[in-house]
């Protein structure tokens, strides 16, 4: 089945580039190009696209306002195309929170970079077409959970990809301020992970920060792996230091969920809890299996609550997932697995 795509961008040159990139795949047909949201709105009505690529910053109604209207009136898969600027990154994160399926930096650079970015854009558009988009904007933040005593060496490791931004806002927003430390690999361009951590930090009771090489991990803090160039691992004799290291792609990614999970398995073993959230592909499946074999508790997000049931399915089929749970139930399940048996839903 051919995927019908609508390209929305105020730059004619960018519209042409995106159209050429997407049209190179026989499974994708670009049915229209729109220079601004009002034109795009009429094209959506007449052309009925399966996926929209949407610019972040446009004259008149900006991409964020247009996305809010789309998700409220006619929910459909949207892939945000952003420039690599601080404002572009911040707005893109907000768009993902509001329900955009994925994001990508606007293609640029050498022929090799354009080819790489083009392949990634096509993959994201095809994954978006298969995603489960829900009406009404962002997922409702799960109810905050009261704190409780966890085992002292407990640690939480989380991997996510497509749909993971929205899921992490809901999951981390429910975590108590005294929860065990959390290490997170979310597949995302490197220019966006800092803005993502800052936005989460404003919304959550726990501290959320972009991980730094050599930083000690402490309770009540979540660490987002920087995107793009380095893998994130545990280091130190007790596995209490963050290590960011260069290396080849693993499972198609850098940072890779598999790298993080294997590190947690070897350093923390049965003291750890692993959770694999929504995302396309299989990154994290083998690492989560290593965690389970090391005695860790392992959880997978349920098909019904995933935007893309790819990574959790791969982990489930491999035997890496001890239990599947909905996104709304995931925070309590993670805390219970950490030994916070007295944790209860707050008022």
Automatic annotation (TrEMBL):
Domain Response regulatory span(s) in chain numbering: 4-121
Residue numbers bearing the 4-aspartylphosphate modification: 55
Domain CheB-type methylesterase: 144-336
Compartments where found: Cytoplasm
EC id: 3.1.1.61, 3.5.1.44
Record PTM: Phosphorylated by CheA. Phosphorylation of the N-terminal regulatory domain activates the methylesterase activity.
Reaction catalysed by this enzyme: [protein]-L-glutamate 5-O-methyl ester + H2O = L-glutamyl-[protein] + methanol + H(+); L-glutaminyl-[protein] + H2O = L-glutamyl-[protein] + NH4(+)
Active site positions, chain numbering: 161, 187, 283
Main location: cytoplasm
Signal peptide interval: none
Keywords, alphabetical: Chemotaxis, Cytoplasm, Hydrolase, Phosphoprotein
InterPro entries: CheB-like, CheB_C, CheY-like_superfamily, Sig_transdc_resp-reg_Me-estase, Sig_transdc_resp-reg_receiver
Domain description: Contains a C-terminal catalytic domain, and an N-terminal region which modulates catalytic activity.
Summary of the function given for this chain in its UniProt record: Involved in chemotaxis. Part of a chemotaxis signal transduction system that modulates chemotaxis in response to various stimuli. Catalyzes the demethylation of specific methylglutamate residues introduced into the chemoreceptors (methyl-accepting chemotaxis proteins or MCP) by CheR. Also mediates the irreversible deamidation of specific glutamine residues to glutamic acid.
Family statement drawn from the similarity comment of this UniProt entry: Belongs to the CheB family.
Protein name, entry field: Protein-glutamate methylesterase/protein-glutamine glutaminase
Native source species: Sphingomonas cynarae
């Amino acid at each position: 089945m051919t995927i019908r795509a609508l390209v929305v961008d105020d730059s004619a040159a960018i519209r042409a580039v995106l159209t050429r990139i997407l049209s190179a795949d026989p499974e994708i047909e670009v049915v229209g190009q729109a220079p601004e949201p009002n034109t795009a709105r009429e094209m959506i009505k007449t052309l009925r696209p399966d996926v929209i690529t949407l610019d972040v910053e446009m004259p008149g109604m900006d991409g964020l306002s247009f996305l809010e209207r789309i998700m409220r009136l006619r929910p459909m898969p949207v892939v945000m195309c952003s420039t690599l600027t601080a404002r572009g990154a911040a707005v893109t994160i907000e768009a993902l929170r509001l329900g955009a399926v994925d994001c990508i930096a606007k293609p640029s650079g050498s022929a090799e970079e354009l080819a790489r970015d083009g392949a990634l854009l096509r993959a994201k558009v095809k994954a978006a077409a298969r995603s489960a988009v829900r009406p009404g904007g962002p997922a409702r933040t799960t109810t905050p959970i009261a704190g409780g005593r966890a085992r002292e060496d407990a640690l939480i490791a989380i991997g996510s990809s497509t749909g993971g931004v929205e899921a992490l806002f809901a999951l981390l927003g429910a975590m108590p301020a005294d929860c065990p430390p959390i290490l997170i690999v979310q597949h995302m361009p490197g220019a966006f992970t800092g803005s993502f951590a800052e936005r989460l930090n404003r919304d959550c009771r726990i501290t959320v920060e972009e991980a730094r090489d050599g930083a000690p991990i402490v309770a009540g803090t979540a660490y987002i792996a920087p995107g793009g160039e380095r893998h994130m691992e545990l280091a130190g004799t007790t596995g209490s230091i963050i290590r960011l290291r260069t290396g080849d792609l693993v499972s198609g990614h850098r940072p890779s969920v598999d790298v993080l999970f294997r590190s947690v398995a070897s350093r923390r073993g049965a003291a750890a809890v692993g959770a694999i959230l929504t995302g396309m592909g299989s990154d994290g499946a083998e690492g989560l299996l290593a965690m389970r074999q090391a005695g860790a508790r392992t959880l997978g997000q349920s098909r019904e609550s995933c935007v893309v049931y790819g990574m959790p399915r791969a982990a489930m089929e491999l035997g890496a997932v001890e239990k599947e749970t909905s996104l709304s139930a995931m925070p309590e399940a993670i805390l219970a697995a950490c030994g916070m048996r007295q944790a209860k839903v707050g008022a």
